[in-house]
Amino acid sequence: MKKTLSIIALSVIGFGMVSCKKENKETAAGTETAATTTDSAAAAAPAPMGDSAAVASVTEQAATASKQPLTTIALSESNFDFGKIKKGDKVQHVYEVINTGSNPLIISEVKPGCGCTAPDFTKDPIMPGKKGKITLHFDSTNFDGNVSKYADVFANVEKMPIKLTFTANIQP
What we know:
Elements lengths: L1 H17 L17 E2 L14 H15 L6 E3 L3 E8 L3 E10 L7 E6 L4 E5 L9 E9 L5 E11 L6 E10 L1
Parallel strand pairs: 3-9
Antiparallel strand pairs: 1-2, 2-4, 4-7, 5-8, 6-7, 8-9
């Protein structure tokens, strides 16, 4: 039993360490610019097998956001392409959110997929018909080639987390 728990713990730690390593995946060239509602927003990515900490964190964030009356949201875009950037550049992109429902929109948390991405977001309730912002800051220091990153947004909407993604082509 102890051996199994040790293996699982080491796997979780190992996964966390490699999640911010160099990624050379080809990414789709298109970006989404049309408004997106939560019904068509990307669903949560499943946690890796044995990663109970990630499942607990997602469940906790979902519970916090779901304590508020539900509303709906539209995104100006859910994916952004930085294009070619130089290794070491620190770039950012602002995703605009619009509360399309009848209750205040409360963004409780924005959780990036790795430590190379840092979020800023509107912390005050966003009233119906009003706009808020989610900014993702990306540090390209440890990357080469094509990268694709994401952040999960937890809010008082029916389908969450809402996945925001971005891509970049890191040049030496």
